[in-house]
Amino acid sequence: MILILGGTTEGRKAVQVVESAGKPYYYSTVGSEQTIDAVHAIRLTGGMEEEEMEQFCREKEISLLVDAAHPFAIRLHRTLAKVSSRLQIPVVRLERQYPARDKRLVWCTDYAAAIDRMRADGICNLLALTGVKTIAKLRPYWEQTPCWFRILDREESLSLAESEGFPRERLVFFHEGEDEKGLLERLHPDAILTKESGESGYFREKVEAAEAFGIPVYVIQRPLLPDSFTFVQGVEGLRKAIERLAPGFFPLRSGFTTGACATAAAKAALVALLSRTEQTVSCITLPSGEKITLPVAATEWADNTAMCTVIKDSGDDPDVTNGCSVIARIELQAGQSPAPVILFRGGEGVGTVTLPGLGLEIGGPAINATPRRLMTGELTAVLEENGLSGKIKEVVVTISVPGGKELAARTFNPKLGIVGGISIIGTSGIVRPFSNDAFIASIRKEAEVAKAIGCSRLIINSGAKSERFLKAYLAERFSEELPPQMFVHYGNFIGETLKIAAELQFDEVIMGIMIGKAVKLAEGALDTHSKKVVMNKAFLKGLAGEAGCQPESVQKIDSLTLARELWELFSEAEQQRFFPLLLQKCWEHCAPLLPDGKLSVLLISESGEIAFQS
């Protein structure tokens, strides 16, 4: 069982992650104000002292603690460290994202140091944005010097402020989305005092507002957290930590895209080239802004280059590239330049683009836009950190995937016009197990390629079997050649595929469908996955009755095990009425998704014949 200590924005993120497992867990907050959308959470309120938390963890068999509390919840952090040490329970700290410490701000180690510094600087009208619980800590200051305190607009906060004796007329209330600049313009403070609360604590907004008015900012540094904690940033890092520290909590493991692996390998290779030290891990920033760390399997040097290898881990997704080596080779060309040019090369196992529609240069390496952007950002940052900005003319990045040419034969790459290897892809950096998003993204890419090479017609089918039947049938009926890019697999995502076809403005869509999916689509299921919908015998009996089938035939539907048995159930005359009606229902659900194009639906028999069409 997992226990989350929340009450913050990070607490909500932690809930978002663990809810997807569909298993119960505990979620604890000090107060009861925070509302969360959760189905599986067992909610706890009220702080737990050391002995109470230890007893709770023993009784509830807690195997993992997730610290998603406020960074200044010092007492809680200490309690977690002691309890986890005694019970040998790992702690994952879901940390906030913090901007680099600005030297123009006044950084203070604690409140006593801040009081001394503000007095020395002659600050007389302070606006404290540190929260109601810090009124007591700042008492020596506000008892002698005028001070404003902003607190939450809650009765509990107001009562606490009044119990500390702070003047009510010097209180201002926080409202979600309020303008920081408006508050400063109204109060005209000499300075503001805030905590290093990170991005989710509106730290940047407070600083920017103060800078706009030329007001100095005093900052209480965030406290150090125990080294024994496992630190992660964001939802992906938390999920990976839970997968590792609480195996089995999620039914399936997530993984990393080839793009994320290539980015990690490229950054590690540049660091290795500049430092001449072996790299074992590489921390990169995902498109979401979250930082994640990938292991580096090998580091090599040759002349003035360095190479690093990251092993692709797709988690439990059935990805053909799982376990392959993604190797990045970095070479620098010295020279004066305002910004280095990042040149991408495809090494062994990385494909070459031969068709338009992918947004990549024909003849260039199949390294997609997002991985290129990620690598460019990471490499540029490393050069800046090492004082090499303006001194490097070119950075040549060569990505290799040994065995990639053989792997590519098991992907959609040949149809996309990518030859000689795999693509370096990934829009999020994360592979989600059996990812619906990834499949839909591949449908879009295939359709975009078809459009780019001039196809006005798209032929969609569920998979290789139905595509083979369709090709044979359509080749006899169309005089022009049907390029392989015209054929797109929809899998189970019929609705999403038709929406993509409409967005790309195809004039015509021909859809081939076999009986197993047709019986689901006829009832309106535009996603025909067996986890979403099953054959509805009552619906089929109603349809058979509507088609005028004999009562005996209608009743036989109850005995069906598989939809394909429908081919044998009806007489020839009944088939001529039932199947066209079934197909008409399919068309009626699909046609509205393609309002400006022609849609034909072809029902494919088990023997591969086009039995009926709308």
Notes on the structure:
The chain has 614 residues and is an alpha/beta fold. The chain has a 6-stranded parallel β-sheet with strand order 3-2-1-4-5-12, sandwiched between helices. A 6-stranded parallel β-sheet has the order 6-11-10-7-8-9, sandwiched between helices. The protein has a 5-stranded mixed β-sheet with strand order 16-17-18-21-19. Helix 2 (50-59) crosses helix 3 (74-87), helix 10 runs parallel beside helix 11 (369-385) and helix 14 (436-452) runs parallel beside helix 16. The two termini are 54 Å apart. The mean pLDDT is 90.
Summarize, please:
With 614 residues, the protein is of the alpha/beta class. It is 35% helix and 22% strand.
Radius of gyration: 31 Å
Shape: globular
Number of strands: 28
Going across the biggest sheet, name each strand in turn: 3-2-1-4-5-12
The residue fraction in helices comes out at 25-40%
Query: What are the segments in which pLDDT stays under 50 over at least 5 consecutive residues?
Result: none
Q: Give the biggest beta sheet.
A: 6 strands, parallel
Give the percentage of residues in beta strands: 15-25%
Helix/sheet category? alpha/beta
What is the tally of helical segments? 21
Q: Please, what is the oligomeric state?
A: single chain
N-end to C-end Cα span: 54 Å
- Can you give the mean pLDDT? 90
